[in-house]
Specification:
Number of domains: 1
CATH topology: Immunoglobulin-like
Radius of gyration: 14 Å
Bound molecules: copper (II) ion
CATH superfamily: Immunoglobulins
Largest sheet: 7 strands, antiparallel
Length: about 150
């Protein structure tokens, strides 16, 4: 559905990387949320608060073109599986990171649309390869928790 290979990052892949500081900057938090790809988008979980999130591409990025996506935060209804959108405390930021080379990309713009809903735009990957989209909840500039989604550009 997404037109490119989305690689789901598991804890097994991420945890050994803690030995290499470039993979885990001091402010990144040490927990990574679980990610599931579903027909209606990518689902992940912020690991500290247990907040569920859904990422839906509006425009898929390429190595030449920026993209944008919608983020919704809340809790999944246990019966229907639908995300019940809720207000989230703190600020949401998105960081693009290339772990194999230890660098990021240009800043992603994040705007709040409504309760629990955000748009990330200017999503641009400066080179082809394996990247992470790090969705972070911050307070006062400090990362409280993040979910990491891996993709190949
Ligand atoms: Cu690179």
């Amino acid at each position: 559905m997404f037109g490119k290979t989305l690689v789901l990052l598991s804890l097994l892949i991420v945890l050994p990387a803690c030995a290499e500081p470039r993979y885990a900057p001091a402010d990144s938090g040490d927990k990574v949320g679980r990610v599931d790809a579903t027909v209606d988008g990518l689902r992940a979980e912020l690991p500290v608060s247990g907040t569920d999130l859904v990422l839906v591409w509006e425009t898929e990025p390429t190595d030449e073109r920026e993209g944008s996506f919608l983020l919704k935060f809340g809790h999944r209804d246990p019966v229907s599986g639908e995300l019940v959108v809720e207000e989230i405390e703190g600020e949401i930021s998105v960081v693009l990171w290339m772990p194999s080379m230890g660098h990021g990309s240009s800043p992603v713009k994040v705007e709040r649309l409504s309760v629990g809903a955000y748009r990330a735009s200017d999503v641009f990957f400066v080179m082809p390869g394996d990247w992470e989209i790090r969705i972070q909840r911050r307070s006062g500039g400090r990362v409280l928790e993040q979910a990491t989604l891996a993709l190949r550009i």
